């Protein structure tokens, strides 16, 4: 795999791992970092040997947000013409392969937004989530007012976006922001177990399940159900569906080919 300045990239079996790595700035999402991340995500998406993508940070910080020092003097046109901020960051949200955010420490501002772009978040017990943009005179710009509201509802999202307060891991789990909380020392083991479990499923079935769940955020219930049913019907064209059901009937583990 390629080496980057602001991230560490490795693969374990069919799982691709991107570790945000700007420790001196608590992984603040500089242009350099998100450019690296976009390239690494493109590479994993194109790599037929990778089934699942994990994005993580350090024990102290997943990411403390957009790089404040880099953007502080931006003009409106600097922001507008470059489509700041989702042009590069948004790549995580458009990945077709399943993605997991493994969050320890701070996930603030753009860090929280980036985590919410993953399919789901597994958090360490020291994780802290927040949208503190209001405290620096701006507002969330990469999904904080939209994905957070869908995840935890209006009352908590409003309170967080208006006060900038942080939510700890237990509250994040209670509120539906994260799938699961685990002890910090076990975070990567638990995330890798989960990632490997997904990676062992039929890749097209996993991609289709993800596509269908994501459809629920865009469609009415009737349209969403129709989309689901059509995709479900299409799984009967998969060799993996034949294999999965035959394996069940024959009381043996399935051996998916990814086709
Ligand atoms: N941008 C740039 N640098 C940052 C940063 C950020 N978002 N967050 C932390 N850093 C830097 C600090 O400036 C500091 O650098 P120096 O040592 O050179 O001074 C270093 O990282 C360590 O940070 P602290 O000394 O502040 O560490 P702490 O443990 O005392 O506090 C913290 C941790 C509470 C996370 C605090 O760093 C903080 O509040 N960070 C900013 C959080 C924030 O406001 N994020 C939102 C950004 S706006 C945004 O993301 C826009 C969007 O929606 C897309």
UniProtKB/TrEMBL annotation:
Any Pfam family matching the protein: ECH_1
Record's function text: Could possibly oxidize fatty acids using specific components.
Gene3D superfamilies listed in its UniProt record: 2-enoyl-CoA Hydratase, Chain A, domain 1, Lyase 2-enoyl-coa Hydratase, Chain A, domain 2
Catalytic reactions on record: a (3S)-3-hydroxyacyl-CoA = a (2E)-enoyl-CoA + H2O; a 4-saturated-(3S)-3-hydroxyacyl-CoA = a (3E)-enoyl-CoA + H2O
Matching InterPro entries: ClpP/crotonase-like_dom_sf, Enoyl-CoA_hyd/isom_CS, Enoyl-CoA_hydra/iso, Enoyl-CoA_hydra_C
Record CDD domains: crotonase-like
Domain of life of the source: Bacteria
Molecular-function GO term, any one: enoyl-CoA hydratase activity
Similarity field: Belongs to the enoyl-CoA hydratase/isomerase family.
EC number, as in UniProt: 4.2.1.17
Protein name: enoyl-CoA hydratase
Keywords (A to Z) from UniProt: Fatty acid metabolism, Lipid metabolism, Lyase, Plasmid
């Amino acid at each position: 795999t390629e080496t980057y300045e602001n991230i560490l990239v490795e693969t374990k079996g069919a799982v691709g791992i991107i570790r945000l790595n700007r420790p001196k700035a608590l992984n603040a999402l500089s242009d350099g970092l998100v450019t690296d991340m976009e390239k690494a995500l493109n590479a994993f998406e194109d790599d037929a040997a990778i089934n699942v993508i994990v994005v993580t940070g350090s024990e102290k910080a997943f990411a403390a947000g957009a790089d404040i020092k880099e953007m502080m003097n931006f003009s409106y046109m600097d922001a507008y013409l470059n489509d700041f901020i989702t042009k590069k960051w948004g790549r995580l949200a458009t990945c077709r392969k399943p993605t997991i955010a493994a969050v320890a420490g701070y996930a603030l501002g753009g860090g929280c937004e980036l985590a919410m772009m993953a399919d789901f978040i597994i958090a360490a017990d020291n994780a802290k989530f927040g949208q503190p943009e209001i405290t620096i005179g701006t507002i969330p710009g990469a999904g904080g007012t939209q994905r957070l509201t869908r995840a935890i509802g209006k009352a908590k999202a409003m309170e967080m976006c208006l006060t900038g307060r942080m939510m700890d891991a237990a509250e994040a789990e209670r509120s539906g922001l994260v799938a699961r909380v685990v002890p910090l020392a076990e975070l990567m083991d638990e995330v890798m177990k989960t990632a490997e479990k997904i990676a062992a499923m039929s890749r097209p079935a996993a991609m289709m399940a993800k596509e269908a769940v994501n459809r629920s955020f865009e469609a009415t219930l009737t349209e969403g159900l129709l989309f689901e049913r059509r995709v479900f019907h299409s799984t009967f064209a998969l060799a993996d569906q034949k294999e999965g059901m035959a394996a069940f009937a024959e009381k043996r583990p399935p051996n998916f080919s990814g086709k």
